[in-house]
């Protein structure tokens, strides 16, 4: 029985991730994609957000590249997105998904004049139509990783969950420190 334990969050859309968190993850898990330009460039690190056993994950979206042509779409590590004309217009990198929280992500709102607006809208519509197939792939990947199965070139979900937990503790202590300093400053 292959029960899906994954669902899409209610606000289906594309999200960006806080660059400092990505950098923190990348320093400890080299399979987490990070580029210092994520802090300044228009084209951010983006993806869809899903929920697996009450933990949110961001599944990165990549633009089509020549190397993706040889990847079979039936693999659970990826999900290719094809236009109505059967042209590859994007790929969900399931094996590169990372744990996130709402305070680490921001939903992307593109203006209609933006050159990516049409493409992202089309990709999102296709993802929405293929939710069932995508959740099956993510569920398979998630279960395999939790059972310590090796998936070449994938993020280390177990390590990344621990890193997220530590990152949240650091954030809380920084927030507490900022609050203490602010209270001290005010009085």
Automatic annotation (TrEMBL):
An annotated Gene Ontology molecular function: RNA endonuclease activity
One Pfam family from the record: ToxN_toxin
InterPro entries: ToxN/AbiQ_toxin (IPR025911)
Name of the featured protein: Type III toxin-antitoxin system ToxN/AbiQ family toxin
Species this chain originates from: Mycoplasmopsis anatis
